[in-house]
Specification:
The chain is built from 7 helices and no strands. By secondary structure, it is mostly helical. Helix 3 runs antiparallel to helix 5 and helix 5 crosses helix 6. The protein starts with a helix and ends in a 13-residue tail after the last helix.
Length: 184
């Protein structure tokens, strides 16, 4: 057990990969359960794609982002934590949403052009508005209260709700006129 703990402390990206390998597909499963599906009717390929996306895209990006912001603002003061969270909303968040709405459809077998037309363009700004209501608070707390070695696992746990939402957005056909646009 000590050897395993030492390994995880030496390679924090592995903890992030492990976290997102579980959190991303869990969000997808919860969202499918909300749709009325059960163990026999889950789209297991969709669950696998969410896990794959978490492992190969999200965990490395989040690890790099946390390292970069910790390098730029090494102290965990409230002011620095707030700066990191605000910077994230205007730099990192749009990049991750762009990746989600282009990479996930490509993993589903769609062309990049179709992903941009059917996922990215109609859903990006709605998703971004929701992100602005959630992530600045989570990340300010993360950068202020959580130790650097535990920031990626912590944010992955907070991501569970986000992954449920993204799973819903990924499968929704229409966004226009929805609650995401302020119309009920």
């Amino acid at each position: 057990m000590k050897l395993f703990r030492k390994f995880l402390n030496s390679y924090p990206i592995v903890r992030g990969i492990g976290s997102y390998a579980i959190i991303c597909p869990s969000g997808c499963l919860i969202q499918q359960s909300y749709e009325g599906k059960n163990f026999k009717s889950y789209d297991w390929l969709r669950v696998f794609r969410f896990s794959l996306y978490g492992v190969i895209v999200v965990a490395p990006m989040m690890h790099g982002w946390v390292k970069l912001t910790t390098f730029i603002w090494p102290s965990s003061t409230f002011s620095n934590s707030l700066k990191k969270a605000v910077l994230e909303q205007f730099t990192y968040a749009p990049v991750t949403m762009f990746c989600f709405y282009t990479v996930m459809p490509v993993l589903e077998g769609n062309s990049l052009q179709r992903a941009i037309q059917e996922q990215l363009k109609p859903k990006f700004f709605s998703t971004y508005k929701i992100a602005l209501c959630y992530w600045p608070f989570v990340q300010t707390f993360n950068f202020y209260m959580i130790s650097p070695k535990n920031r990626v696992p912590f944010v992955s746990i907070c991501s569970l709700f986000w992954w449920i939402f993204l799973s819903h957005m990924n499968t929704s056909k229409k966004v226009k006129g929805s609650i995401l646009h302020g119309k009920q």
